[in-house]
C-alpha cells in the first residue's frame, strides 16, 4: 500500500486538510503472497487513525474556544462566516477514503474469485489426467504380474526336472560305486581265500607260502594281508568253536581254520621279530626313514605297542646303571643322606634339567619315526618318572621327624612339579603326568596333616616358653619389690599381645599354603585345611584364655589386699592410719589391675577379629567343596571364642567388684554425718557436692577411662549398664544410713545431680531414669509437709510408683522431725 502525503504541515488546519485530501493508493502487489483482510485493515487503521485522532483533538479545542467565547482577542466578535466554516469542518466524514477503499476491495474480491475459478479448473484437469495415467499404470502392472507368474511356473518345472535327473544320476552313481566296491571286495576275498588256503596246508609249514610273504620289499603288504587273515580266522573260530564236534563239515572247516590261525600267528610273530631286528639296526645307524617304515608296518601288530615299548626300553638312560648312580651322586653328593636342603635342591634341579634335555632329544626322533608319537611320548615319560625319578626320590625322601621337620624344598615336590611341567611342554601324549607325580609322593603326603599339626603345636609350645622366659627375665631385672607391685608388673609383662596372635596366623597361613601344595583334590584340601585351621583356633583360644586368667590374677591379688586390711572399729589411731595407707595401696593395685584387664579384653577382641578376618579371607573358600565343612569350622570358631568370652565375662564382673569396693571405701571414709544434717546456724546452705561425692566421681572418671577406650559395642554397653545398676544400689544403701534436714536434703540432691551427670556418659536410659527417681526422692527432705501430696504430680506413673516404694525408709527419719499435728495431717 502506498500513500502520497504533503511533506510539510504548517498548522492544525492545514494538517487536517492534508489528511482529508490524501488519496488512498492500493497496488496489486498488496494482495499477493499470504494475503489477509484482517492484516490489511489493521495496517490501515494503525497508519491513519493517529492522524485523525490529532485532528479530532484540534477540532475539539477549537470548538471549545469558539463556544466559550466568540469574542476575538482584540475584543471584536467572531464573524458568522467563520463559525459556519468551523461547523462544516466539524461535521466532515471521519474516514473520507472509505468509499474509495470499498470500491477497491470489491474489485479485488471479484478478481480473487476469478482466480479461484481458474485454479479450480486447472485442478480438475490435472485430476482427470492423473486418473487416466493411473488406470494405464494398473493395467501395465497386471500384465507384468501375469508374465512373472508364468516365469515362476517355468522355473519350478525346470527345477523339478533338474532335481529328478540329479537324483537319478546319484542313484546310478551309488549303484555303480556299490557294484565296484562289491567287485573289489570279491576280488580281495578271493585273494584272501587263496592265501588262507596256503596257511591251511599243514601246521608249522610256512615254506609253501606265496612269494609275497617272503619278499622283503613287500613286507608292508604281507603284514596287512596277514592281519586280515588273522581277523577272519579268529572270528570264524570264535563263532564255530563250540559247535565243531556236532557236524562233520563244520568240524573239518573249524580244524582247517584252527591250523590257519596257528600258522598265521607264527608267521606274524616271525614277521614282527624280523621288523624289530631291522628297526634296531636302523636305530643304531640313525636311519630315520627305515625306522619310520618299520614303525609304520609294526603299527599293524597290536597297534604298534611292541615297537613302542621296545624302543623306550632300549634307551640308554634306562639300561645304563652308571647313569642311575650318577643321578644319586649329583643329588646327594659325597655326604649321602646328610646333604643340606640347598644342595639337594640344586642337585635335583640339575638332574631334572638333564632328563628334560634327553627327553627333548628323544621327542624329535619319535616325531620323525612313529605314526603315533603321542603314545610313544606317554610311554617314555611314564618310564622316566617310574624308574629314573623314583630311584632318585627314594634316596632323598625319608620319613620326617616330628621333632625337626625338614623344609618343603628338601622333599623335592616343588622341583618335581616344575620338572613335570617341563615334560608336559616337551610332550607326553595323554599321560596324566600330574597324577603320576602325585603318586610318587602319595605315601609321604598321606601323613602330612598329622605332621603339620604336630609342627604347629611345637611352634606354639616354643613360643610360650620364649614368652615365659622373657617374662621371668624381666621380673628378675626389676628387682625385689612389694608383693602387690610385683604381681602387677608380672601381669603387665605377660599381657596378651596382638603381634603374637598375628604370628600364630602367619604360621597357619604358611601351613595352609603347604596344604594347597600337597592336596590336589578340592575335597582333600578342604579336609586338611579344616584340621589345620582348628589347630589355630585351639592355639588362639588357649593363648587368650591364659592371658585373661593372668589379668584376672591381678584383680584377685587386689581383692586379697583389700580383705587383708579390713579392720574393726576398736583399734588405735596409729593402727587405723597404717590400715588407711595400706587400703590406699590396695586401691591403687586394684585400679592398676582394672586397667590391665581392660587392655587384655581389648587385645582379646582384636585377636578374635584377626582370626575372623583370616577365616573369611583365606579359609572359607577352601572349605566349600566339602558339604558342612564351612559350617563346622564356623561352629568350632564360635565354641573356641566362647570359652575365651567366658573368662572375659568373669574378669569384667571382678572389675565391677573392684570399682564398687573402692567406691564403698571412699563413701565410708569421706562421707560425714554432718554432710546431710548441717546445724541450723542461720548461714546460707552449702550447694556444693559433698567431699565423698567429689572423690567418688573423680575416681570413677579416672578408672573408667580405660573402659571407655578399650571396650566397644555391646560389651561396653552391657558393662556400663551393670556398673550403673550396682552404683545405684550402693548409693541408695549408703544414703539410708543417714538422717537429713532440709539443708542436708539440698546437699543430697546436689550429690545425686553430680552422680547423674557423670552417669549420663554411660548412655544407659535405665540408669538415667533411676537417678532421676533419686532426685525426686531427695525432694522429700526439701519441700514443706503440706506440699508432699503434690510432690509427684506430673511425673511418670512408673517413677511415682517406685518413688513411693523407695522413700519409705527416708520418710521414717523425716517424720521424726515433724510435730504430731503435721504427722496427723500427713496420715489423713
From TrEMBL:
Region described as Disordered: 670-689
Pfam family, one: Sec10_N
GO terms (BP aspect): exocytosis
Domain Exocyst complex component Sec10-like alpha-helical bundle: from-to ranges: 221-803
Exocyst complex component Sec10 N-terminal domain: residues covered: 99-215
One GO cellular component, as annotated: cytoplasm
UniProt keyword list: Coiled coil, Exocytosis, Transport
Family: Belongs to the SEC10 family.
Protein name: Exocyst complex component SEC10-like
Organism of derivation: Nelumbo nucifera
Amino acid at each position: 500500500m502506498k500513500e502520497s502525503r504533503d511533506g510539510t504541515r504548517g498548522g492544525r488546519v492545514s494538517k487536517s486538510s492534508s489528511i482529508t485530501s490524501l488519496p488512498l493508493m492500493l497496488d496489486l502487489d498488496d494482495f499477493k503472497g499470504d494475503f489477509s483482510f484482517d492484516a490489511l485493515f489493521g495496517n490501515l487503521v494503525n497508519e491513519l487513525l493517529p492522524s485523525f485522532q490529532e485532528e479530532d483533538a484540534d477540532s475539539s479545542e477549537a470548538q471549545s474556544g469558539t463556544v466559550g467565547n466568540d469574542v476575538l482577542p482584540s475584543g471584536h466578535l467572531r464573524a458568522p462566516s467563520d463559525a459556519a466554516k468551523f461547523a462544516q469542518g466539524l461535521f466532515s466524514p471521519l474516514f473520507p477514503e472509505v468509499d474509495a477503499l470499498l470500491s477497491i476491495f470489491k474489485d479485488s474480491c471479484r478478481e480473487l474469485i476469478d482466480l479461484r475459478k481458474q485454479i479450480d479448473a486447472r485442478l480438475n484437469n490435472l485430476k482427470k489426467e492423473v486418473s487416466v495415467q493411473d488406470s494405464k499404470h494398473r493395467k501395465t502392472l497386471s500384465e507384468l504380474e501375469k508374465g512373472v507368474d508364468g516365469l515362476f511356473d517355468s522355473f519350478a518345472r525346470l527345477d523339478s526336472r533338474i532335481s529328478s535327473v540329479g537324483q537319478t544320476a546319484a542313484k546310478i552313481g551309488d549303484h555303480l560305486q556299490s557294484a565296484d566296491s562289491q567287485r573289489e571286495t570279491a576280488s580281495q576275498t578271493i585273494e584272501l581265500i587263496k592265501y588262507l588256503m596256503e596257511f591251511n596246508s599243514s601246521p608249522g609249514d610256512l615254506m609253501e607260502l606265496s612269494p609275497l610273504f617272503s619278499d622283503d620289499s613287500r613286507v608292508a603288504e604281507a603284514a596287512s594281508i596277514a592281519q586280515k587273515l588273522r581277523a577272519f580266522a579268529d572270528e570264524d573260530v570264535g563263532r564255530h568253536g563250540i559247535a565243531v564236534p556236532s557236524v562233520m563239515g563244520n568240524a573239518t572247516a573249524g580244524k582247517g581254520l584252527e591250523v590257519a590261525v596257528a600258522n598265521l600267528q607264527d608267521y606274524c610273530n616271525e614277521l614282527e621279530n624280523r621288523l624289530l631286528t631291522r628297526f634296531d639296526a636302523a636305530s643304531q645307524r640313525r636311519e630315520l626313514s627305515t625306522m619310520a617304515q618299520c614303525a609304520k608296518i609294526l603299527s599293524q601288530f597290536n597297534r604298534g605297542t611292541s615297537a613302542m615299548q621296545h624302543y623306550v626300553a632300549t634307551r640308554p638312560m634306562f639300561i645304563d646303571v652308571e647313569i642311575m648312580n650318577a643321578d644319586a651322586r649329583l643329588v646327594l653328593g659325597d655326604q649321602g643322606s646328610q646333604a643340606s636342603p640347598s644342595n639337594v635342591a640344586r642337585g635335583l634341579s640339575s638332574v631334572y634339567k638333564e632328563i628334560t634335555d634327553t627327553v627333548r632329544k628323544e621327542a624329535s626322533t619319535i616325531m620323525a619315526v612313529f605314526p603315533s608319537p603321542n603314545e610313544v611320548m606317554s610311554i617314555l615319560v611314564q618310564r622316566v618318572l617310574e624308574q629314573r625319578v623314583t630311584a632318585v626320590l627314594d634316596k632323598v625322601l625319608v620319613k620326617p621327624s616330628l621333632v625337626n621337620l625338614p623344609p618343603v624344598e628338601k622333599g623335592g615336590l616343588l622341583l618335581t612339579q616344575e620338572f613335570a611341567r617341563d615334560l608336559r611342554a616337551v610332550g607326553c601324549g595323554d599321560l596324566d603326568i600330574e597324577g603320576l607325580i602325585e603318586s610318587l609322593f602319595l605315601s609321604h603326603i598321606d601323613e602330612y596333616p598329622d605332621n603339620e599339626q604336630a609342627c604347629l603345636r611345637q611352634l606354639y609350645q616354643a613360643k610360650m616358653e620364649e614368652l615365659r622366659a622373657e617374662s621371668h627375665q624381666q621380673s628378675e631385672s626389676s628387682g625385689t619389690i612389694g608383693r602387690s607391685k610385683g604381681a602387677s608388673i608380672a601381669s603387665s609383662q605377660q599381657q596378651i599381645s596382638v603381634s603374637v596372635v598375628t604370628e600364630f596366623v602367619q604360621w597357619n597361613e604358611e601351613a595352609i599354603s603347604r596344604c594347597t601344595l600337597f592336596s590336589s583334590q578340592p575335597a582333600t584340601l578342604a579336609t586338611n585345611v579344616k584340621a589345620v585351621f582348628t589347630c589355630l583356633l585351639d592355639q588362639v583360644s588357649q593363648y587368650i584364655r591364659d592371658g585373661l586368667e593372668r589379668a584376672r590374677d591381678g584383680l584377685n591379688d587386689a581383692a586379697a589386699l583389700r580383705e587383708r586390711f579390713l579392720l574393726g572399729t576398736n583399734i588405735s589411731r596409729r593402727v587405723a592410719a597404717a590400715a588407711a595407707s595400706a587400703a590406699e595401696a590396695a586401691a591403687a593395685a586394684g585400679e592398676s589391675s582394672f586397667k590391665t584387664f581392660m587392655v587384655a579384653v581389648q587385645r582379646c577382641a582384636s585377636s578374635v577379629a584377626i582370626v575372623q578376618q583370616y577365616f573369611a579371607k583365606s579359609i572359607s573358600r577352601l572349605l566349600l567343596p566339602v558339604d558342612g565343612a564351612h559350617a563346622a569350622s564356623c561352629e568350632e570358631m564360635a565354641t573356641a571364642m566362647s570359652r575365651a568370652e567366658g573368662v572375659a565375662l568373669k574378669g569384667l564382673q571382678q572389675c565391677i567388684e573392684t570399682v564398687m569396693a573402692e567406691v564403698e571405701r571412699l563413701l565410708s571414709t569421706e562421707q560425714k554425718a554432718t554432710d546431710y544434717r548441717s546445724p541450723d546456724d542461720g548461714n546460707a546452705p552449702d550447694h556444693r557436692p559433698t567431699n565423698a561425692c567429689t572423690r567418688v566421681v573423680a575416681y570413677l572418671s579416672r578408672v573408667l577411662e580405660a573402659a571407655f577406650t578399650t571396650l566397644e559395642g555391646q560389651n561396653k554397653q552391657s558393662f556400663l549398664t551393670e556398673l550403673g545398676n550396682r552404683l545405684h544400689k550402693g548409693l541408695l544403701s549408703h544414703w539410708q544410713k543417714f538422717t537429713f534436714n532440709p539443708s542436708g536434703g539440698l546437699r543430697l540432691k546436689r550429690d545425686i545431680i553430680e552422680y547423674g551427670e557423670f552417669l549420663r556418659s554411660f548412655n544407659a536410659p535405665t540408669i538415667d531414669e533411676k537417678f532421676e527417681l533419686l532426685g525426686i526422692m531427695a525432694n522429700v527432705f526439701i519441700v514443706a509437709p503440706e506440699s508432699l501430696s503434690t510432690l509427684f504430680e506430673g511425673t511418670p506413673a512408673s517413677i511415682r510408683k517406685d518413688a513411693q516404694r523407695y522413700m519409705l525408709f527416708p520418710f521414717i527419719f523425716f517424720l521424726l522431725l515433724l510435730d504430731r499435728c503435721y504427722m496427723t495431717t500427713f496420715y489423713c
